[in-house]
Every structure is written in structure tokens, then in C-alpha cells.
Design brief:
It is a single chain. About 75% of the residues lie in helices and about 0% in strands. The chain is an all-alpha fold. It has one domain: Ferritin, core subunit, four-helix bundle (Ferritin, Up-down Bundle). Helix 1 runs antiparallel to helix 2, helix 2 packs parallel to helix 5 and helix 3 runs antiparallel to helix 4. The longest helix has about 30 residues. Bound molecules: MU-OXO-diiron.
Length: about 170
């Protein structure tokens, strides 16, 4: 892999680990609000982001590059409501989609077909990540300030299964 791709992939590894850290911070926030289902959902999301990071970690190594870990930015720690958290989740995933698209553009301009093939998994994954976050955000928008429905959504989000461990190598 050339040095430009290596550096960009290392940056994306850092961005995925930051995503994990951000969602873990959201999990901590929900724990503090006693919204256990939402806290669980965010904890699963944090695990998934860690797997995304590890995909970059493994790919950089497989292609003969060097993984260089950098400082992970401090995440936000306070939100005004569950809706505020999921608004941030949507905005964050949309930003990540932009980063992945930027890497796809780079792989094309560098004619790096292996990297391009690797990134296609992320292109598809981002469609799902954005759709899921938007669906939850839209539900939270609809309920207004109904505590009963908030309780039901919390129960529902608490059912999220753990991400498949095999996904790290998919
Ligand atoms: Fe790794 Fe949520 O994108």
C-alpha cells in the first residue's frame, strides 16, 4: 500500500476508535439517566465501532503497511435528552460516511483496487448505520415528552444483540 493510503487508513482507524469512544460516552450518559436499554444499545454500538477499527488495523497489516496509533479525541459527555443523543449519532454517522467516501475517492485516484474492494463493505455498512440511527431519532421525535413511550423505546433498544464477532474479519 502506498504511503498516502497507509496514512489515510490509519486516520480512519483512529476515527473508528473515536466512534467507539463516543458511543461509550453516550452509553455512560444513558446509564446515568437510568435508561438501561439505550445504554445497552450504545454499548453494542461501541463494540461494533471497535470492530470497524480492527478491520482497518488488519487490512493495513495484510497489505504490508504499518499501523500507527494516535491519540483519541475526547468525546462529548453531556446531552440534553435522548433525542439530542440520537441527533448527534445521526450527524456523526453522516460524517463517517463522508470519510469513507473520501477514502473510496482516494483508492480510485491511486488505482488501489484492493483498498477499493475492502472499502465497499464500509460503503454498505454506512447505509445501514445511518438508516438505523435515523429510525431511532425519528421515533424519539414523534413521542414528544411521553415517558411511557420513552420507557417502551428503552425496552426495545435493550434487545439489541451483540455484534457478530466474525464481522471483524468479514
Ligand atoms: Fe464505523 Fe458507525 O461507522
Amino acid at each position: 500500500m502506498n504511503s498516502e493510503i497507509e496514512s489515510a487508513f490509519n486516520e480512519q482507524l483512529n476515527a473508528e476508535l473515536f466512534s467507539s469512544y463516543l458511543y461509550l460516552s453516550m452509553a455512560a450518559h444513558f446509564e446515568s439517566q437510568n435508561l438501561k436499554g439505550m445504554a445497552h444499545w450504545m454499548r453494542m454500538q461501541a463494540q461494533e465501532e471497535n470492530m470497524h477499527g480492527m478491520k482497518f488495523f488488519d487490512f493495513i497489516n495484510e497489505r504490508g503497511g504499518k499501523v500507527t496509533l494516535a491519540k483519541i479525541k475526547e468525546p462529548k459527555t453531556e446531552w440534553s435528552s435522548p433525542l439530542d443523543v440520537f441527533e448527534d449519532t445521526c450527524a456523526h454517522e453522516s460524517k463517517v460516511t463522508g470519510l469513507i467516501n473520501g477514502l473510496v475517492d482516494l483508492s480510485l485516484s491511486e488505482k488501489d483496487h484492493a483498498s477499493n474492494g475492502f472499502l465497499q463493505w464500509f460503503v454498505t455498512e454506512q447505509v445501514e448505520e445511518e438508516a438505523t440511527a435515523q429510525e431511532i431519532r425519528d421515533k424519539l421525535k414523534l413521542i414528544g415528552d411521553s415517558p411511557v413511550v420513552l420507557f417502551m423505546i428503552d425496552q426495545e433498544l435493550g434487545q439489541r444483540p451483540a455484534p457478530a464477532t466474525g464481522a471483524a474479519n468479514a
